[in-house]
Amino acid sequence: MNIQIIVNDTHHDKCFRELVDQPVTALRGITQQQADALRDAFGINTIGELAELRAVKYARAIRTMASAEAEPLGEKAKETLIDDAVEMTFPASDPVSIQSSITRIEVPPEKVDASSDHQHAAAIEEHNKEVVGSGALGQGGEKTAGAA
Questions:
Q1: pTM score, two decimals?
Q2: Cys staple from 38: which of 30, 44, 64, 130, with CB 3.0 to 4.6 Å?
């Protein structure tokens, strides 16, 4: 470990056994005001006393255990259900979801046209037959000049 990045310049020549007994201000980033607050609140004067502070030990233990803790079963089950729902909605084997070059989906002629599949489908069908039968539509499907 490079001790020079942890302690102030005036403490670079000390070994670890000596650093334990040094004031907390020997640690890089600890000001005298912070050291006074540690002394007043917890009775901490040295690096060794700071290392032995029970609250610090508990916090380190909780952090260590949290990194090793498995995800709660309920949360894992929810994530699995969501993943399965997405797969059911957009299956990976669905060619429409895989092939992005598809610009339209053609409906076979025997299938019902969605635009005419409603309550008045029969009336619309009859109207279409009348228009086609009377020649009111030109070859491209547009109305001719004589059609109403």
A1: 0.45
A2: 44
Take residue 36 and report the two structure tokens written for it: 């006074």
What's the pLDDT tens digit per position in 10-62? 998 898 999 999 999 999 999 999 999 999 999 999 999 999 999 989 999 99
- Across 126-135, b (16+ Cβ under 10 Å) vs e yields eeeeeeeeee
Rounded CA separation 148/146 (Å): 7
Q: Which two tokens stand for residue 100?
A: 């992005």
Determine the distance from the C-alpha atom of residue 37 to the mean position of all C-alpha atoms in its chain, rounded to a whole number: 40
Taking the C-alpha atoms of residue 20 and residue 39, their distance in angstroms, rounded to an integer, is 16
DSSP label at residue 21: T
- Please state the separation of Cα 30 from the chain's center in Å: 37
Q: Cα 116 from chain centroid?
A: 42
DSSP 22: S
Minimal CA–CA distance to 56: which of 14, 16, 17, 27? 27
